[in-house]
């Protein structure tokens, strides 16, 4: 490290958060998301050793190899990353889990695990890099593909798309957001909020596939995304140690969402009548209406900071289970003696 | 010749001596009628009399209404295998009574509710009507409990007729209800009434009776699933995930109870464990693998259909080298099969579970004590070998009550395997997750959260090199698989060795494993009375090690006994020892019930051409 390199609050440079060289296509939205994860982890001064990266199978799921080399990673099975995350975060509650999935991984093969993870409120930032298409197998429709869309390989999609955010909301998600890989600033601010959130934070990021699904008629293309993106809010994430400033905003236009660790997400509503992210029914309505109009709503759609997480529901000790010493795990000999005494004939 | 029935008791006993502590009782009931309490109380009362017993529940996949049978075998010599014959019948299910009576051994006793007005069609058995309804109605128990209490009528009647003193029954009830006086008294009242009624109204006309002896002192009665749970607790389990499936469910039920008792922090009331009911078996094993990767002692329990669903994760854990413990309490397959009947049908499946070249360590407990031991030892092996460990139990071992010696406290400290600390890495200056540093095929791992810039690695199911870096290079692949092969060879030296009874001069050897042990033990004695001496090797784990090879080499013919149809263990032995294959013969049978010694003796005689 050069002596004059800039470092963050824990003395790490941006380089210390880098990953391996991406093997994804040039211009893939997933690479941009990986870069935002690097930027956010650096800016938030997260200890990379306390982060675990988890993924399923697919283009998206390769990307954890391309950020945070100093963090443990587990590239699991197709659609089964939620189970790995559930086990790992339960036995070590001090870890920050970042999961990267795709629309096939989450919306098709892994829909069941996804919804049960959300329902359990497993502490994880769960990113869906959503492009509506299967890349590694060369261009089949995924379950999030648009109705009526046409692809060279797959023909016309006759089925309605599954909306990841709606599925999450229906499973009682405590954090639902949508963004667009081309909107780096928004991705960063939502990532920060997701990391500060204590339960499952679902982040559905439309990430166009430059090879198989970047036609203008696809809602998962850059052209469509840029033209039809309708941000709910202008978002600024404010860490808990910085003062919150809401000056030069008209009252009623700014909403500060307090996150669990004391940080705030400042939402500057573009249209003051637009959306209250703590109103679950409003979130459903918003998503359904956007779906009908093939609109592309981005921003924080829903948040509930009060829902208990799985480690809380499990009433776990504060010490991560994996750090408990043997004497806390194996009961002493006297306990077994007493059990034997109680069981044996004929006491 | 006069029938037994025509004679007074004294004459029966004069003609046919009393048969004491050597017979089988069959209790036929309706599922959901609450007969389990009555049956286990009878079993435990005789156990407390010092008589060797075994009890087997043969039940349907049903909540209420279908027939259920419970057999209690008493044997003064300590045999505990299932007998095909039964000698005392308690017929409480009108739906099956005709067949139940038809199968009662000649000379046997049939107890039945008198309100059925049963026609006494067989003249070679003794019929004893019991006033079940009258005695139940006379008791002052609440109406909603009357069907449960009705079962206590046959407990009281049998106590009189078999000669079980009531304090033994009361002691068993006290054990069953954990010392709660009220239910004990309520049940005892009916038992006493039935006991008194039988004293006054029934004359003993069959030869079956019990007598106190001293063969059970210091022993215990337990089901395998409870023993497995207890073993896991003493193995320091911190995480379990599961999906309900018969016959493994009671293992997790017991685990939850035990953990709540022994693993709650007394100061804070917080848990040092987590048990999660998953959405399916894929989720269950996935959580276990995630927890094992993060450094926990993690387990799941399931049965055949669940094992199928766990296949892909088992392969991932094998190849990414993640510790996990998987209990398979086997039942009858394929498919839903006979979900409440026993089998040893998952041997090959578990051994090779996964796609590509996968081989798993499989533990094969054959006694309740071994189940407890493997309950903790499986974690040591999983963490030492960094791989999934399968423990094969079955419905018979898992859900029925077996006699056992007291449990032994683990004789070694917990083995957490090769885990590097930040200081270790600092000293070495490098870290390569899958490097074979020690030549035993087992690399060193780190756990997430390790505070060192070189400490992390990326676990994956895709091809990787020694540094855990993605690789599609043929030489990396071959090297990795060769190392996994070395690890397999290391596993051979660590798994429990077979138990061998080598009989000098025996030409034939029997190889068995798991719940068939009581059957083999008894069949060997039957064979020896016919002049056929056998040696016996009981496998306790896969992979095999040299003891088994030598055993086969030492015998002209070896019969592999197992409770499945295809002879799965015999196939594994053929595969492992092709040079000895001509000596290895399969004796396999599976009909949902535990194997009987009579069947095995006949099968060996047939194969021996005798």
Features:
heterodimer, A: 347 residues, alpha/beta, Rossmann fold, 15 strands, B: 610 residues, Pyruvate-ferredoxin Oxidoreductase, domain 3, 4 domains, seven-stranded mixed sheet, six-stranded mixed sheet, 38% helix, globular, disordered N terminus
Summed over residues and divided by their number, the pLDDT of chain B gives a mean of 95
CATH topology descriptor of the largest domain in chain B: Pyruvate-ferredoxin Oxidoreductase, domain 3
Amino- and carboxy-terminal Cα gap of chain B? 34 Å
* Percentage of residues in strands of chain B: 15-25%
CATH superfamily of the largest domain in chain B: Pyruvate-ferredoxin oxidoreductase, PFOR, domain III
C-alpha geometry of chain B:
globular
Number of domain modules of chain B: 4
CATH class type of chain A: Alpha Beta
Number of strands of chain B: 23
Strands of the biggest beta sheet of chain B: in what spatial order? Answer: 11-10-12-13-15-14-21
- The CATH architecture designation of chain A is 3-Layer(aba) Sandwich
Total DSSP E strands of chain A: 15
What's the overall average pLDDT of chain A, rounded?
89
Strand order within the widest sheet of chain A? 2-1-3-4-10-9-15-11
Structurally, the number of domains of chain A stands at: 1
Q: CA-to-CA gap between the ends of chain A?
A: 71 Å
Fold and architecture overview:
The complex is a heterodimer of chains A (347) and B (610). By secondary structure, chain A is α/β, with parallel strands linked by helices. Chain A is 30% helix and 21% strand. Chain A has one domain (14-313): Rossmann fold (3-Layer(aba) Sandwich), CATH 3.40.50. Chain A has an 8-stranded mixed sheet, with helices on both faces. In chain A, strands 12-14-13 form a 3-stranded antiparallel sheet. Chain A has a two-stranded antiparallel ribbon with strand order 5-6. Chain A is globular, with a radius of gyration of 22 Å. By secondary structure, chain B is of the alpha/beta class. Chain B has 4 domains: 4-209, 3-Layer(aba) Sandwich (Pyruvate-ferredoxin Oxidoreductase, domain 3); 222-404, Rossmann fold (3-Layer(aba) Sandwich), CATH 3.40.50; 422-494, no CATH class; 499-607, 3-Layer(aba) Sandwich (Rossmann fold), CATH 3.40.50. Chain B is built from 21 helices and 23 strands. Chain B has a 7-stranded mixed sheet with strand order 11-10-12-13-15-14-21, sandwiched between helices. Chain B has a 6-stranded mixed sheet with strand order 3-4-2-5-6-7. Chain B has a 5-stranded mixed sheet with strand order 18-20-19-22-23, sandwiched between helices. In chain B, strand 5 (86-91), helix 3 (97-102) and strand 6 (104-113) form a beta-alpha-beta unit. Chain B is globular. The interface between A and B is large, with 63 and 79 residues. Strand 2 (72-75) of chain A pairs parallel with strand 17 of chain B.
